[in-house]
Design brief:
By secondary structure, this protein is of the alpha+beta class. The protein contains four helices and seven strands, in the order αβαββαββαββ. It has a single domain, classed as Histidine kinase-like ATPase, C-terminal domain (Heat Shock Protein 90, 2-Layer Sandwich), CATH 3.30.565.10.
Amino acid sequence: MVDFTRGRLGGGIALNVRDEQALELHFTQVVAELREVHPEADIVALVQPGINLRCDPGRLSQLLSNLIKNAIVHGIPGAQVNVLVTCTNHRFFMSVTNDGEPLPAHVVPQLFKPFWRPPSSQPQEGLGLGLYIVSEIARSHGGTLDVTSLGSKVCFTFTMHASPGVAGKPVA
């Protein structure tokens, strides 16, 4: 709720920005924790080694965690959740893709609003703040957050500028 309040008051989500070395360790830990909590989920992660980035690693880990949880909860049960994290050409890139119901065009702009949820006959957990917080973390990092829905594939993508001095090595 603190993150929601800060975001709504216009200050954005508070960041603890620093030059972080080996950022991939944070992301692989997020994936490992979610595999433990959701053993039924098939999470396939490709995380580039050697990612060095000026960012708030805790907040980017929170962003990734929220996107993966969203994919597990709203995707087809047992279907793969694909995670890609890379940093090349001065761009940091993170995506989470899952199989799920296609998102109607009128729903996409609503996804990042606080407390918004798609209509459902099933009871839902949480407050409906996960994607709002993700979007605020992206904005606070000066990045962009996009969602695409093609057929049964739903993909959330976060990108941000990476300074040349701290960008990771290209994926081999």
